[in-house]
Amino acid sequence: MGRRKIAMEKQESQSKRHVTFSKRRVGLFSKAAEMCMVTGAQIAILVSSPSNNPKIFSFGHPSADTVIDTFLTNSSPATSMGDCTKESLRPLYREVKAIEREMKIESATQNEQKKKTSREEWWRSEEYKDWESIEKLQAYAKALEELSNNTRARLESMSLEVQKNH
């Protein structure tokens, strides 16, 4: 599966919004680390999560605090640091890559759990909450009614077989 362009619109589902936030945050931090490595720029990024219990995530080189203090005091960037070299940024870059790997693992685990739940207890799915048309809900209700009728007929058939065998 290749990359595809995702429309820039607010995710209505809280879980989709959380996953999108996490993936995009990691991507943003990764690009910032690459920019530091390539240009030697000092960067600070603060991101607030869109959850009920918001958290602040930060990224910075040499540190978010150093860059923010420099900005707030209108002072020039630390001259003692000299030019940022690739070697000095490698640990930071490795940390961002480790976070990316963790996010991929977490995403794969969530997808596997979602598949497992959908196979075992598909009726508990909240997928219908994302449907915006009454036609989809009516089709879903009709399919559930048909399933119920088929299940009832099979149960009656099996009950008759059991009664014949006893």
- State the end-to-end distance: 55 Å
Percent helix, as a range, is 55-70%
Number of helices: 4
Q: Spatial order of the strands in the main sheet?
A: 1-2
Percent of residues in β-strands: 5-15%
Compile the SSE list and pairings.
Blueprint: H1 14-39, E1 43-48, E2 56-61, H2 64-72, H3 86-120, H4 134-165
Antiparallel strand pairs: 1-2
Report on this model:
The protein has 166 residues and is mainly alpha-helical. It folds into two domains: 14-121, Transcription factor, MADS-box (SRF-like); 131-165. Helix content is 61%, strand content 7%. The chain contains four helices and two strands, in the order αββααα. The chain has helices at 14-39, 64-72, 86-120, 134-165, and strands at 43-48, 56-61. It has a two-stranded antiparallel ribbon with strand order 1-2. Helix 1 packs antiparallel against helix 3 (86-120).
